[in-house]
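quick one before i forget lol
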Amino acid sequence: MNYSIIDFLTLLGALGLFLFGMKLMSEALQKVAGSKLRNILSAMTSNKFKGVLTGVLITAIIQSSSATTVMVVSFVNAGLLSLTQSVGVIMGANVGTTVTAWLISLIGFKVKISALAFPLIGIGFPLIFSKNKKLSSWGEVIFGFSILFIGLDSLKSSVPDIQNSPEIFSFLAQYTQMGFGSTLIFLAIGTILTIVIQSSSATLALTLVMCNNGWIPFELAAAMVLGENVGTTITANIAAFVANASAKRAALAHLIFNILGVIWILLIFHSFLNMIDLISIKVTGNSPFKINSAIPIALSLFHTIFNITNVLLLIGFSPLIVKIVEKLIPIKEDEEEEFRLRYISMGMLSTSELSTIQAKNEIASYANHTQQMFGFVKTLFNEKNEKNFNKLYDHSIKYEDISDNIELEIASYLTKILEGDLSTSASVRISSMLKIVSDIESIADSCFNLTKACKRKFEQKSLFQEDSATNILHMFELIDIAIETMIFNLEHDYHSVSLRKANDIENKINDYRTQLRIEHLNNIKNKKYTYQSGVIYSDLFLECEKLGDYVINVSEALNEIKE
């Protein structure tokens, strides 16, 4: 066998070049698309067919099903997509990824694209250094596309020639004559390769090259493609490992969907391949079972028809898949309810006025979650167990991140409503709602500042005297009443808002803050507690007063709507 370690390293290098080009092109396309992808996903409706089309579109654009599913998982984790919505997008991603196979089959094997690659690099490389971000991203797209096909061309020339190295064929031969066992072996190979390489597109390219060079027959290449469909789900599951239960469920739904597809296709595997063979003969005039050069097109047909059929067969079972993953990944009793968009995630309604009602409901839901964040503060203040403290503190960080995302989504939605035909009163209403959303996010920020103060208290083992702790707990009670009043006003008719109770509790918070500040200065002067404890103590009651200001701002903005 005339195949050295250098030849093998060259093969790995060619694969690396292909992967690098794919990664660069995919990431650059995401930059070019920018917030459009985010808007498409975040505006998803509960219609599963639209979800599938969205998955197809985004994956076809960014040329990476893994990137789409990771994006979906992150959106579920951030509360911008529900689990049911995510399943449709994931199904569509499987269809969208077949575009890569067609690019490689039609261009990579039919056209000497590497001859154009260097001129394309000459066009794209200077654009990368442009100060215009969009031009720079397009330069990366062109550069990545060129590198991808240089890598593919290198792959084709780096794989050993079977005629000169028959030992390789004899090695593979022992695994190709085992009937259904061979199918399962190559399915496993496709899965493992995709997990290792972390790119189904790269594994598919390698499979196409192997077929084109006569390494493996068409049926075993098809088995590898099925394995790649399973292997590609691992990326999303890795991304969801540190995410919340809903994100883990979305990633698991992807795995279950692809495994179910592999199971049913294996039951009719040879019949399905014979159908692909007939289509291939009609389209190209060649049979993939007889001519190696016909395999790339036939394999692309197999990949596309299988994924489309799988979606059509299983889309009706998406509620069942959701139930399965909810059963397999239950939300623990001590885990808080999901923090996510509930109303505006369905997109704009028929009129701007109706959309305003959606926004009103979403804002009330948002306020309820900030109340939960303040609940974390009260628990953290009294928590003595380190494990429980750290777990709840991490949960608070998660809520703060999600709060920022939710604020952005609601504000974007309200801005879109403003673009429609609105009455003068409705325009005032939307402007006030934008202020309200900003203040609710500020309440969330204050809650997080309070959790950080509690963490300093816990880490520094600052022991508050009984009267100091009682003072903070009383301030917490006043804030609780203020938040409950705010939520009551948000959940009811804006035109019936009364500022009296909101102002009364705000005055009590301000007066109590002033009282605590005077007492605190005297206590520091008399060395009643350490300076370190005093700083944490004052940070807590001062931040509470600031939080109260944001709460009264919400009621005042509601009063503007009333007037």
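fyi Residues 344-562 form a domain with the Methane Monooxygenase Hydroxylase; Chain G, domain 1 fold (CATH 1.20.58.220).
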